[in-house]
Amino acid sequence: MRCRPDWDITIADQKAAWARGEKDRFHPYGKSYAKVFGEQD
Questions:
Q1: Which domain does 26 fall in, by range?
Q2: CA distance 4 to 41
Q3: Of the candidates 39, 36, 37, the residue with the CA atom closest to the CA atom of residue 27
Q4: What are the 10-residue block averages of pLDDT along the chain, 41 residues in total?
Q5: Which residues of 6-36 are buried (b: 16+ CB within 10 A; e: fewer)?
Q6: How much is the pTM?
Q7: Is 7 strand, coil or helix?
Q8: 3-state DSSP call for residue 34?
């Protein structure tokens, strides 16, 4: 199964970024469904 890199929390770099609080690197963290779907083409 393929997974977007910003969704795969099993990667060591991603785990470290999450632990550091860099949540803006993860899609769609912090966005409402309305905002996510509103940004789609």
A1: 1-41
A2: 19
A3: 36
A4: 70 88 78 80 65
A5: eeeeeeeebeebeeeeeeeeeeeeeeeeeee
A6: 0.50
A7: coil
A8: helix
